[in-house]
Amino acid sequence: MSVPGRLGATAHYDDGELVLELTPQDATLQHGVVRASVLSFVVDAAAGIVLDQDPDAWTLTTDLSLRIRPVPAPEVIRSSSRVLREGGRSSSCLVELVSGDGSPVGAGVAGFARVQRRPGDPPKPPMTPERAPELLGRGELLGRPLREEAGIEVVDPLEGVVQVSVTPELRNPAGTLQGAMVALLAEAAAEDLVATRFESPVVVVDLDVRYLAQAQVGPVRTRSRLLGDGPDAPVQVELVDNAADRVTTLVYARAVPVP
Predict the structure, then answer these.
(1) Which residue has the higher pLDDT, 40 or 115?
(2) Looking at domain 4-257, which CATH architecture does it have?
């Protein structure tokens, strides 16, 4: 019943290839457009499941870049993955996102590092490509808008300051704040800052996420600044784990007015 597990993503095999499908729901939309953070979950999962084949190591996301089109949510979004590089300690994968009729929705690239599991680490679930169809999408869908389900608190929208507690519902199997929830916090900071300053509804279409450290305790709070003068200027967002007083993630986001 984790929040990432209730985003509406499922998996199946198509000609021997693992395909993730996302069924958009009202709770995962922002002004009728699928949230960038939700699509980042699809990119992260589609790439990570394919590359995570070592039961004795964590395959941790180090970076993720996403570009999406601000179009009305289609009935379904499908992913296709292509491994760009696979090494002993790091790897990267490209994920294309299309609607049911094949129209492009967006694309993302995710990079990963392999870290050996240590004594005392949580058990690692067997999320192999073969088991993904039976493990993904088993939970109920979200009952409230995603930001509410995640418990994001607005501290100062004009400055893009929001925060979230690291609750069990937001953690990944390694016990830290799950990557899509990290992206959601940065997305919320960017959209609040731009929408408040320019008094216009916006959607985030670009995300560049660098995962620097694990957010294990929280609350995690954002520090944001607009890198320009217009509403489509990039927004720099730092995520800080208040308990450890350290930056855990650096994000560059871009929001555009609602078409």
Answers:
(1) 40
(2) Beta Barrel (2.40)
